[in-house]
Specification:
- The complex is a heterodimer.
- By secondary structure, chain A is an alpha+beta fold.
- Helix content of chain A is 18%, strand content 46%.
- Chain A has one helix at residues 2-22; strands spanning 29-36, 39-41, 44-47, 53-59, 65-69, 74-78, 82-88, 94-100, 108-113.
- In chain A, the strands form two sheets. In chain A, strands 3-9-8-5-6 form a five-stranded mixed beta sheet, with no helix packed on it. Chain A has a four-stranded mixed beta sheet with strand order 2-1-4-7, with no helix packed on it.
- By secondary structure, chain B is mainly alpha-helical.
- Chain B has helices at 2-25, 32-52, 54-63, 65-99, 104-109, 115-140, 145-171, 175-203, 226-234, 243-278.
- The radius of gyration of chain B is 20 Å and the shape is globular.
- Classes of the chains: A alpha+beta, B mainly alpha.
- Chains A and B meet through helix 1, strand 6 and strand 7 of A and helix 3, helix 4, helix 6, helix 8 and helix 10 of B.
């Protein structure tokens, strides 16, 4: 059992080292999106291919929303009257849908990558 | 009531799949239902606390606290399940050689009891907190409490039905194969969780260089379909895997298998030495 535990600790340490060495939070362009009445404004966002962008989502509603996209693989819960940051990219050219999972009928938007 | 039902059902299925595989793999652990109950209580309490502190958590780590927190919970769950697999494999060998008793039941009977509530709790936290926040939002938004309650209870029952069906299917597997089958399922479950944790880390800005997508198999099985989500949890399937996800997935399987193989070799070595002494 002791051997297993020490292996586990070694594994965790190696992984943590890997994480630290891989941090690459380069400065990125900011795009602001508002959620109001369970709708996104703007609901179409354009960015360039290969670009890293910080989406700053301002939830102006009183209720929480989950900003999610299956196309660019992000999900984030944003409480009411709060903001959240979602990093996207680098992405290949195309259209990527995003939505608010808690209000999917109205909270729809898309990211256009040129 | 409908949105409440659907969201609860979807999140619950993820929890139900994990719990049913772990339960089927640990058949034989005494007082299981009490342990499961503790686990569920632990899960619900944890989910509420996490929901309460969503803002605080999010604001950590320059706004990426949520992603890091989710990644940590997933890794903790992966570790717990991975540890269980390794434990069962190494102790299984010992029991088979010492007592000439076969059967998962005997092995599982000796598992440290805390494994069950810990796994259930960890598996529940992430999805559970989403359910709590969503329901809270619905109520704030004017939906009646009873509607929300009905919807979420309905969703959890439906999710549980799926989990129970899986469990029933799993325990029907003959005692000869159940050990291998459940071990494989647990290893894949663990690898899938590590892959999901990696996805959250990428969302937080890590692994940028290896975050490009390798292929897109959405035309075969989409992540958004029911089966796609099902296999997403069960084996970690994703239609658009990133390189770093593939690396972590393979590495996790490799490491667990390597440790299992080494511990079974150790047991065989010790046993043959003691057998030689008695000869």
């Amino acid at each position: 059992m002791k051997k297993l535990t020490s292996k586990a600790i070694l594994f965790t340490l190696t992984l943590s080292l890997g994480f630290v060495l891989n941090i690459n939070m380069s400065s990125a362009k900011e795009v602001h999106i508002e959620i109001e009445n369970h709708r996104f404004t703007p609901d179409v966002v354009e960015i360039n291919e290969g670009e890293r962008v910080r989406l700053i989502i301002h939830n102006k509603d009183a209720t929480p929303e989950e900003f999610e996209s299956n196309d660019f693989h992000r999900e984030k819960i944003i409480s009411g009257n709060s903001k959240g940051i979602v990093l996207v990219g680098p992405l290949k050219a195309g259209e990527y849908k995003f939505f608010g999972e808690f209000h999917e009928d109205t909270a729809q938007g898309k990211l256009i990558v040129k | 009531m409908f949105p409440s039902f659907i969201i609860t059902f979807r999140e619950f299925i993820e929890i139900a799949i994990i719990i049913s595989v772990v339960l089927a793999s640990t058949n034989g652990l005494p007082n299981r239902y009490r342990l499961v109950f503790c686990g569920i209580l632990f899960g619900i309490t944890g989910s509420c606390i996490i929901a309460l502190f969503t803002d605080v958590i999010s604001n950590f780590a320059e706004g990426f606290g949520q992603e890091l927190f989710n990644a940590m919970i997933l890794m903790a769950a992966a570790f717990t399940i991975g540890w269980t697999v390794i434990w069962m494999k190494s102790h299984g060998q010992k029991i088979v050689t010492e007592l000439k008793h076969k059967g998962q039941e005997v092995v599982a009977g000796n598992l440290p009891r805390v494994v069950l509530p810990a796994t259930i709790g960890l598996a529940t936290f992430r999805e559970g907190s989403e359910i709590v926040l969503f329901s809270y939002g619905l109520i704030l938004g004017g939906e009646s409490m009873s509607n929300v309650l009905l919807g979420s209870i309905g969703g959890s029952i439906a999710g549980t039905v799926v989990g129970v069906a899986m469990y029933m299917g799993l325990i029907k597997i003959s005692p000869k194969y159940i050990f291998q089958v459940t071990t494989t399922m647990l290893v894949l479950l663990t690898a899938g969780m590590m892959s999901m944790a990696t996805k959250y880390l990428v969302s937080a800005g890590y692994f940028e260089k290896t975050s490009f997508v390798l292929w897109d198999s959405s035309f075969i099985l989409s992540d958004e379909s029911f089966i796609g989500e099902f296999f997403g949890i069960l084996i970690g399937y994703t239609a658009q895997p990133m390189l770093i996800q593939a690396i972590v997935y393979v590495l996790t399987i490799g490491i667990i298998c390597a440790i299992m193989y080494k511990s079974s070799k150790n047991v065989a070595h010790t046993t043959s030495r003691s057998e030689n002494k008695h000869a």
